[in-house]
Design goal:
alpha/beta, Leucine-rich repeat, LRR (right-handed beta-alpha superhelix), 2 domains, two-stranded parallel sheet, 8 strands, elongated
């Protein structure tokens, strides 16, 4: 029985690019697509695949970054936006260990991004360094006005760490303080709390919550459920 591709509004499939391509050319009513390809077994690369796709009405994009990704890791994303002739998306979700400087370059280059979700994933100390380096990159020094914040457009920021990675919670608090209070509405941190959550940090986070920030700190098994939800535009 042939697949009624023209009826699809949401799509997820792990297959070779040739199969994806055949379906996507007919699925003109899609509002969400999750394209999974094993590049170890497929001659196509992520950049080549993106060059074959267009999304002029793009709202949200999510992709995984290899631990070895360098400063140019987002070039396929930028090329995809350009050739799609799309208004830039409002939501960006990343999974892996993207270079912190590359993340900030994206935020500076695409001011329409109001929601950022990052799931730091890796082994040993890699995700710990990447997560904490990202917080340092995003944080503005105390001498700098909030009006000069690196990402003044952000209204939602979600940071998650897999494999029980802990976070420097004092640095996380400084990061939240550095973002403009008039735009930041929601912040979620899903990571191993460890021993880094001291009294001063707890008090500072609680004051932000009292000031109206929708703040969630979570660890344990429930974090996996929440992080999976971050990568879907709509739960299935």
């Amino acid at each position: 029985m042939p697949l009624p591709s023209h009826q699809l509004t949401r799509y997820e499939l792990d297959a070779a690019w040739e199969i994806h391509g055949g379906i996507l050319t007919q699925a003109l009513n899609l509002v969400e697509a999750r394209i999974l390809i094993s590049f170890d077994e497929d001659p196509w690369t992520d950049s080549v695949v993106l060059n074959h796709l267009k999304a002029p009405s793009l709202v949200e994009i999510a992709f995984e970054i290899a631990e070895t990704g360098g400063p140019g890791v987002f070039r396929p994303f930028e090329s995809f936006i350009d050739h799609s002739q799309a208004a830039t998306p409002r939501k960006l979700t990343l999974r892996g260990c993207p270079p912190p400087s590359a993340i900030t370059d994206i935020l500076l280059g695409y001011l329409s991004l109001t929601t950022l979700r990052i799931l730091f994933r890796g082994y040993l100390a890699t995700p710990y360094r990447a997560a904490n380096n990202f917080l340092s990159e995003l944080t503005i020094g105390a001498h700098t006005s909030r009006d000069d914040a690196l990402a003044p457009q952000l209204s939602e920021i979600y940071v998650g760490c897999e494999h029980k990675t802990s976070i420097d919670h004092a640095a996380y608090l400084r990061t939240l303080h550095s973002l403009p209070v008039h735009s930041l509405k929601t912040a979620e941190l899903l990571a191993h709390l460890g021993a880094g959550l001291d009294t001063a940090t707890v008090s500072g986070l609680e004051r932000l919550r009292q000031d109206g920030l929708n703040l969630l700190l979570l660890e344990g098994y429930d974090t996996k459920v929440v992080m999976v939800g971050w990568t879907y535009a709509k739960p299935y």
